[in-house]
Task: structure prediction
Amino acid sequence: MLIDLAHRFRRTLLALTGWPTRGVKAMVYDRDGRLLLVRHAYGRSDLWMLPGGGIARGETPAAAVRREVMEEVGCTLGSVEPVATFTARGEGRRDTVHLFRGLTDEVPVIDGVELVEVAFFAPDALPHDLSAATARRIAEADGRRAYDGAW
Result:
């Protein structure tokens, strides 16, 4: 409950100040081609999303995506490949989101703080309750939609 309250407060503060943020998202696959998705303990906890988070001061986006995946699901990424950079203007914010693709051989584990659920899904068995942005990223990755730069 406290993490959800902190999330809402931060989101409101960023919208009011217009402070730009930089973040990362990861399309993490296992050797069977299944995509890793998470459900957060805050915000829209009813939706499956790509793992990710913020970029720390002085951190590169590639380092941030590796760190965020390790922090959230305990998986090391063997390699990371930049996919695209997006802008997000929702809720009055100015966000830049760097999307990466990576591969892991490890079994994800919930961090116990930010996440309530984590799982790999086959491309033909994705959950119906994906966030809209996650559904767009998947459609772009499999060629059903062109990248347009908007998160």
